[in-house]
Amino acid sequence: MPGPVDPLIPLSLLEAVRTVDLPDNDFEAEFVHELRNKRLGLSDTVFAQIKRFSEAVRRKQRTDYAEAVGIARLIGRRPDAEAVFREAGRNFARQVYGTISPVTRKMMRTLPALLTRPLALRHARRVARRYMHGTARRMGGSIILEVSESVTRDAAPKLGGCAYYEAALRELIQLMVGGVGAVDHVRCASRGEGSCEWRAEWRPLRGKG
């Protein structure tokens, strides 16, 4: 059994469910109590779990891998599962990006690419190691993210759960260097390929060189 995971992963999944399930308009907002019976993200259970995982993040406590997988599989039964996983991945990336110092964030967005990329790679490696049970490395003009213990790997049909890590990588690079190209899922443990791997092209902001 894989080791415990950072609580930010299940927290980002539950927050995405809540975001997706929020009322779309004022008319629906008038019936929130009724919608709670139909939309998981509005349930008291999800609100309680969000509070619990938020506290675990604050205390830097780890979460059982099986519990995180259980949340992912619950999401995977939804017809909009892939959209929720993508929202969760973006949410995760925004939160880990917020752990980088404001000075470093500004440097990554303004310095020439020759200086920006080593900084971005260092933080991508930290994020992969600290939060994802993974590794990040540079290959030419791309960053390779490899995750050996994916929480969402088998959560949804047609590898829909893998969209979580794809969206997280895309959003993180976009935030760090201001531009990202194609993001490809080049290897998947669900296909018997050992581990999951994504390749993302990074593109600095125009004028950075």
Explain the overall architecture:
The protein is α+β, with helices and mostly antiparallel strands. It has a single domain (8-202), classed as Muramoyl-pentapeptide Carboxypeptidase, domain 2 (2-Layer Sandwich). Helix content is 53%, strand content 13%. It has 9 helices and 4 strands, in the order H-H-H-H-H-H-H-H-E-E-H-E-E. It has helices spanning 8-21, 26-29, 32-35, 44-59, 65-76, 81-97, 102-110, 113-131, 163-177; strands spanning 134-139, 142-147, 180-187, 196-202. The protein has a 4-stranded antiparallel β-sheet with strand order 1-2-4-3, covered by helices on one side. Helix 1 runs antiparallel to helix 4 and helix 7 crosses helix 8. It is globular. 38% of the residues are buried. Residues 25-32 and 34-38 have low confidence and may be disordered.
Instruction: State the assembly state of the protein chains.
Output: single chain
Proportion of residues in β-strands? 5-15%
Main sheet properties: 4 strands, antiparallel
Q: Structural class per helix/strand content?
A: alpha+beta
H and E string:
HHHHHHHHEEHEE
Mean pLDDT: 87
CATH architecture: 2-Layer Sandwich
Low-confidence stretches: 25-32, 34-38
CATH fold label? Muramoyl-pentapeptide Carboxypeptidase, domain 2
How many whole angstroms does the radius of gyration measure? Answer: 18 Å
- State the name of the first-level CATH class: Alpha Beta
What's the number of structural domains? 1
